[in-house]
Design brief:
Blueprint: H1 3-12, H2 15-30, H3 33-47, E1 51-60, E2 64-73, E3 84-93, E4 102-120, E5 123-124, E6 150-174, E7 179-195, E8 198-202, E9 211-218, E10 224-230, E11 233-239, E12 241-248, E13 255-271, E14 274-289, E15 294-304, E16 307-317, E17 325-332, E18 335-336, H4 337-346, E19 354-361, E20 366-370, E21 374-389, E22 395-408, E23 425-437, E24 440-449, E25 453-464, E26 472-486, E27 489-505, E28 508-509, E29 513-527, E30 530-544, E31 550-561, E32 566-577, H5 579-585, H6 588-594, H7 598-601, E33 606-616, E34 619-630, E35 635-647, E36 653-663, E37 668-677, E38 690-708, E39 711-724, E40 727-742, E41 753-768, E42 797-805, E43 813-817, E44 826-833, E45 836-846, E46 849-859, E47 869-880, H8 887-890, E48 897-906, E49 916-925, H9 927-937, H10 942-950, E50 953-961, E51 964-971, H11 976-979, E52 986-993, H12 994-1009
Helix pairs in contact: 9-10, 9-12
Length: 1010
């Protein structure tokens, strides 16, 4: 026997061989096309609703499968129509090559296939492919880790894949809804992919580096058929959709090809029954010539409605070298928007309103050079370009001429730095360019280089602010200049002028004015475009009225340092105001707030501020020094010093280390210190805060010192308060040898001058910020007369004397309060407690008589004038009214003594006259003044004169209520009463307006001066 045959028979008898032979037979028994034709359809029908028809011509675990005439039918009402058909499907691979580290898909083909997606009676055929799964309990969600950046294969692998889709069709059919039918037919797609060996797959753009060869063909031999039917649009078109892309990196030099023919110059759409003609087409032919080492752009043509909007041409040479040369230009560019508008007009009422017109061009734009030195140009020309979409603001570019040139070094491996944030940009030139946008003129020019820095000039004119912002209007003119040796320190100088500037607050709109702003700044960076500091070298703001008169002048210097610790400083800020002109440019809502303090500010107030602000996480610190000149108060040296810290993200605590005010050469001093805290308590007293503050106000003048507005002071006057939550406790004190005032018209007929001497006071104060009285303090009416209960408190307020100009006679002195030999002319006990000022034991010597005060109460409540009220009783004894008369008339009056009681009450001090109730009872008056009193309340005539001559006046009662005067004059009986009967022995006057009463009184007084 042949030894070889004998040896083979020996191997065949071994158990190993027989085991492998049995496995081979089992593999062939399972993995063959006969088994697949029975097993696969049975498996699908068992586990899904899909019914399969088709013929397996190959079925191998190691090498793939082939199926012909495949049809897949869903279940339910769609069982008669296949949702997927294919003439042939091939999936060929080589699994044994995996042992060699290769993943090979030699052929993945889908030939003449059709995918049908259909809806009937609200059901879709794809919803009948799978059997419904029983409900499963939701599994707890796994924690999601950081996103993957790559997939590791660990073993070195290489992928080869060929995909071939030929004659693929997609159909979308629906009974309801807006879209009834859509289809794509004759879709062809071929691709080839070969990679180098890899051990990981990056999940980013770096995956391209693993490709050695790529080929993509899209409908390269026949056009694509498209059909679309809906309520709005009907479209049926044969559309070229050719794309070829080939890239082989294994060749030296590399092979590259890119060509397209996508779209048509003109195609028709049926939109709501209207025929619309439009067009879009991209033609390209880019390929690599290995012999010349050249990438040629033989064609790159973007067309819209048959017009060439963008046409590129050029070459990229020396591709195999380290520095390829690029020479690509925009050869033709004509964007004629008027022709596009004709297509949009055909869609009127169908698509949102859109209007475009004008011409654009990018001709002259290009890129030239190599990887180390590239020159790029951008040129934009525009003429009468107009774009408006719907109700949006239109965009009009009347003319544009923009020309930029950049020199680049793409090979640079330098990292961005503070000085050079764009290391690949070597230089940039902005040729003088101009744009007219929405009637605004923009001019731009400049240059930049890494070695010498940059300089940019820009200007803007005729910009209407109202078109870009709400509540602000005006025509803007801007001039800007910026220069720097590097991007680490940039100098910016700009001037902004706004003509017809107006702004709105709520519903109040300001009048038009002129606004000018000059800013000179330095921007300092500590990393690429990371701002370190903004230095404001000078900022000048000037606002004028339309006639050119200055209203506001503002000038400031300072800096801002952003970051985790924000640091800002103003040093200084100078503000000058012209109050009359300022009121002319303010909106009504601000004018109403400033007008009441116009006299306090004066015509030209000035303010100067030096301040710093530091903010760290959770805390802010403010330090400020302010000085002011307020001509209205004649205050030329007002100084305010502030040092406070704000803690908490919501400003939960404000720590006032120091707040001081000095004025009038140090005569007036005010200090405040302490802290404000937000607490979880209802109705905080100071805004949202509870306070723990110390407030001190003092006027100290060792000698007589003129202050302001005709006021001179000599001595000490002060107020010390301690504020703790709702409680305010303190003291008002004075020790003033003299306090004087004149209206600065002395001497003269209009002179008003007053002098108060020896003013001493020590008044305790206790105020409750949460106090709300339940009942009014005022009880009773005018029938209550003054009663003395015998209580006499030691006075804590005294005034030696008060002398001044006569109330009615010019240039005549008058002693309002007359000092006694051993006691002051005025004394009282005043105590402010629980929001009430109680005034007791009031005594004032005047006109050789005395005025006593009892039961005087002033309720300040919550410090709202509407809720304030006052009541009081005054006893007037032996006042000599002759002293009110001129000296030449005093001797003509027999008796000027007056005795009377006066009751006052008022409940609303926001309108004191209307809410004043007054009762004045005169029970002793001389005959001359009694006649005058009767003349005031009653018109003069013969009978009144006879009555006043014959009847002695025993009492006069005068009351005031709601602005009306009620008066009764009582007479003693005489012989004339038998002839002229007086009812109840009196003459009455009812409901006389207060203005008439005062006018009659003034006229009657004048009779004594003549």
């Amino acid at each position: 026997m042949n030894p070889i045959l004998k040896s083979s028979l020996g191997i065949a008898k071994t158990k190993t061989f027989r085991g492998l032979f049995v496995l081979f037979l089992l593999y062939k028994l399972v993995f063959n096309h006969f088994t697949a034709n029975w097993l696969v359809p049975h498996f699908l029908s068992q586990y899904t609703l899909v019914k399969m028809e088709g013929k397996f011509t190959s079925f191998s675990l190691l090498y793939g499968i082939e199926i012909q005439d495949l049809k897949l039918y869903p279940g339910g009402p769609f069982a008669s129509d296949a949702f997927f058909r294919a003439k042939e499907i091939r999936i060929r691979y080589n699994l044994p090559f995996l042992f060699l580290g290769k993943i090979r898909f030699s052929d993945i083909s889908l030939i003449d296939s059709n995918i049908r997606i259909e809806e009937k009676n609200g059901e879709w055929n794809v919803s009948h492919l799978l059997k419904p799964n029983p409900k499963q309990e939701e599994k707890p969600k796994k924690e999601i880790g950081p996103p993957l950046t790559e997939i590791n294969t660990y073993l070195p692998l290489q992928l080869t894949a060929h995909l071939n889709l030929q004659g693929v069709s997609l159909q979308y059919i629906r009974e309801s809804g807006n879209i009834q039918y859509a289809s794509i037919q004759n879709f062809d797609f071929q691709t080839k992919l070969i990679t180098n060996r890899f051990t990981s797959i990056p999940l980013n753009i770096d995956a391209i580096n693993q490709l050695d060869e790529v080929m993509v063909h899209l409908n390269s031999e026949r056009p694509l058929s498209i059909e679309f039917k809906s309520n709005q649009l009907n479209w049926k078109e044969t559309l070229p959709m050719s794309l070829q892309f080939e890239w082989d990196r294994t060749e030296s030099p590399e092979l590259f090809l890119f060509a397209t023919d996508i779209g048509k110059d003109k195609f028709n759409l049926d939109v709501r029954g209207k025929q619309v003609q439009t067009g879009f087409r991209l033609l390209s032919d880019i390929h690599f010539d290995p012999k010349e080492d050249l990438l040629k752009i033989q064609q790159f043509d973007l067309r819209v409605i048959g017009q060439t909007w963008l046409k590129l041409g050029g070459v990229i040479s020396k591709l195999s070298t380290e520095t390829p040369e690029v020479n690509v230009d925009v050869e033709t560019s004509e964007l004629k928007l008027d022709d596009l508008q004709s297509s949009l007009n055909q869609l009127e009422g169908i698509v949102p309103f859109m209007k475009v017109s004008g011409d654009l061009s990018l001709a002259g734009t290009g890129i030239h050079g190599n990887w180390n030195q590239t020159k790029a140009n951008l040129k934009l020309l525009a003429n009468k370009v107009y774009v408006k979409i719907g109700n949006q603001k239109p965009h009009a570019l009347d003319t544009a001429n923009l020309d930029l040139t950049a020199n680049l070094d793409f090979a640079s491996e330098k990292e961005p730095t503070t000085e050079i944030p764009f290391p690949k940009l070597k230089s940039l030139t902005i040729s003088p360019s101009q744009l007219n946008y929405n009637q605004s003129e923009i001019r731009l020019s400049g240059e930049y280089s890494q070695s010498s820095g940059f300089q940019v000039l820009a200007s803007l004119e005729k910009l209407q602010l109202a078109e870009y912002s709400q509540g602000i209007a005006g025509k803007v003119k801007l001039a800007l200049q910026s220069s720097a040796d590097s991007f680490a320190n940039i100098h910016v100088n700009s001037n902004i002028n706004i003509d017809g500037f107006r702004y709105q607050i709520d519903r109040s709109r300001s009048p038009a004015s002129h606004l000018n702003l000059d800013i000179n700044t330095h921007l300092i960076f500590d990393r690429p475009f990371g701002i370190k500091e903004i230095q404001i070298q000078n900022l000048i703001l000037d606002q004028r009225t339309l006639t050119g008169n200055k209203a506001i002048e503002l000038q400031l210097k300072g800096y801002v340092k952003p970051g985790d610790t924000l640091n800002a400083q103003v040093s200084p800020l100078d503000l000058k105001l012209n109050t009359p002109n300022l009121l002319l440019v303010l909106p009504l809502v601000l004018k109403e707030k400033i007008s009441p303090v116009q006299n306090l500010l004066g015509q030209q107030p000035k303010i100067k501020l030096n301040a710093s602000y530091v903010q760290i996480p959770g805390s802010k610190h403010v330090n400020a020094n302010l000085s002011a000149d307020l001509p209205g108060l004649e205050m030329k040296d007002l100084k305010l010093t502030t040092d406070l810290t704000i803690n908490g993200t919501n400003s939960n605590e404000i720590l006032i280390k120091q707040m001081k005010v000095n004025a009038f050469s140090g005569v007036l001093k005010t200090s405040l210190s302490g802290k404000l805290v937000k607490l979880n308590k209802p109705k905080p007293p100071l805004g949202p805060y509870f306070g723990n503050l110390d407030l001190n106000v003092s006027v100290v003048s060792p000698s007589k010192q003129y202050l302001a507005k005709g006021i001179s002071v000599h001595g000490d006057l002060g107020l010390n308060l301690k504020i703790n939550d709702y409680d305010i406790n303190g003291e008002l004190f004075s020790k003033l040898p003299s306090l004087s005032y004149n209206n600065q018209k002395c001497p003269g007929e209009s002179c008003k001058a007053y002098l108060m001497e020896e003013i001493n006071a020590k008044i305790p104060i206790q105020h409750d910020l949460a106090f709300k009285p339940d009942e009014s303090l005022i009880i009773g009416d005018k029938s209550i007369f003054i009663k003395n209960y015998g209580r006499m408190n030691t006075p804590n307020v005294t005034i030696g004397r008060v002398i001044g100009t006569h109330p009615n006679i010019p240039n005549l002195p008058f002693e309002y309060v007359k000092k006694q030999k051993d006691s002051p002319g005025f004394s009282a006990f005043i105590e402010y407690k629980e929001n009430f000022a109680n005034i007791e034991s009031l005594k004032s010597f005047s006109m050789d008589g005395i005025i006593l005060g009892k039961n005087l109460v002033f309720n300040l409540g919550n410090l709202d004038p509407k809720n304030m009220e006052f009541r009081g009783n005054l006893l007037i004894r032996d006042i000599d009214l002759k002293q009110l008369m001129a000296p030449k008339v005093r001797d003509k009056i027999d008796d000027g003594k007056l005795k009377a009681d006066l009751n006052i009450k008022v409940r609303d001090l926001s309108e004191p006259i209307a809410n004043l109730d007054l009762f004045f009872s005169i029970f002793q008056i001389g005959r001359d003044f009694g006649k005058s009193a009767l003349n005031v309340i009653s018109a003069q005539n013969f009978f009144i004169d006879r009555i006043t001559d014959s009847y002695p006046i025993s009492k006069i009662d005068i009351s005031l209520s709601r602005g009306l005067v009620y008066a009764d004059v009582y007479f003693d009986r005489s012989l004339l009463s038998l002839i002229m009967k007086l009812e109840d022995g009196k003459i009455s006057q009812q409901r006389m307006p207060l203005a008439n009463f005062l006018k009659r009184a003034q006229n009657e007084i004048q009779t004594y001066q003549e």
